[in-house]
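Q: Predict the bound structure with zinc ion.
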Amino acid sequence: MTAPLIPVAEGIYQVPIPLPFALRIVNCYLLRDHDGWAVLDTGINTAQGQAAWRAAWGELGVQPRHIQRIFLTHVHPDHYGLAGWLQAQVTADGGQAEVYASPREIQQARLIWEQESTFDFAAYLMRHGMPDDMARAVDSGLDDTRTMTLPHPAALRPLEPDSTLDIGARRFKLLLAQGHADGQLMFYDERDALLLSGDHVLMHITPNIGIWTETDPHPLRRYLQSLETLRHLPVRLALPGHKALIHDWSGRIRELEQHHDERLHHTLQAVHDGHTDAYHVALRIFQHVRFTPHEWRFALAEALAHLDELVLRGQIAQEGDRFALA
Ligand SMILES: [Zn+2]
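A: Predicted complex:
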C-alpha cells in the first residue's frame, strides 16, 4: 500500500491513485489554492481510486467542498476518469468546482468518452493488420474503460495554451505538449523551475506516441519537435503523471530521443524484412514480449507513428495502410 499523499514541493502533494492496468498508478496532485485546494488529474473511476482520494483528503484535513478547481493535463482515461466523480463530491459537500482542460482535449473527451466519434475502432485495427478476433476483444475492452470514466463532468472549461494561471501563490504558464495527446498541457512555474509535466516526459517508461482514429497528423514529429524545444527549459523538478519525479530533465529528454532513434531504426528494419502493416511491424519489434490484446493496440498505434515518421523522412513509402521501402 502506497502512502495516501506525498509532499513534493511547497504547497503541492502528490496523490498516487491506483489503476486497474499494468501501469498500476497515476500520479495526481493536490495544490494549495487561494482559499482552498486545486486538483490536477484525477485517476480512473474504481472503488480503490475513490478510496485513495478520501484517504488523501483525510490526511490533510481537506473536505471535498474545499476543492475549488479541477485541472486535467489531458483526457486519457487514467487522468480524466474520476473528474466527474470528484466534481460530484464537491457539489454534494456544498462546494463548487469546475473542470478544466485544453480546447483540443475537450474536443477529444467529447469524441471518445461521449461517443460522438463515428470511427469504427475494430475496423481500424483490422485495416492495420490486427487479427479480427483480437481487434474485437480490444474494442470491447474499450467499452469497459469508458464505463470507468463515468460520471462525466457537468462541463469542461477551456484552458488556453500559452496563457498564465495562478494557483495559490504560484503562477503557471500553460505549455502545449503534443505527441502523447494532441492537446496535453504542462503547468510551468518559472520562478521555481517546477513543471507539472503530465505524461509528456516520464521516467522508466517511454510515453506512448501513437496514431489513433482521431489523432492529429504526425504525432511523433510533433513530439520530437516538442522535446527539442523543451530540452532548454530550466526545470529543477518535474512532477509527472506516472512513475518517479524527474530531477534530470534534459538528461531524460536525451534518453527519450535516443529511444525513438532506436525504435525508428528497428521499424525501418522490419519494413526492410518485408513487414508491410503496422501490426506485423509491431509483432516484429516486440517479438519477445507477451502483450495482452489491450497492450497490442498500443504497440500497433506506436508502430504506426514510427512508420509515419519514416515516411516523412522519405525512408519508406506508404500506399493506403501498407508500407514498403522507398
Ligand atoms: Zn497517463
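A: The chain has a mean pLDDT of 96.
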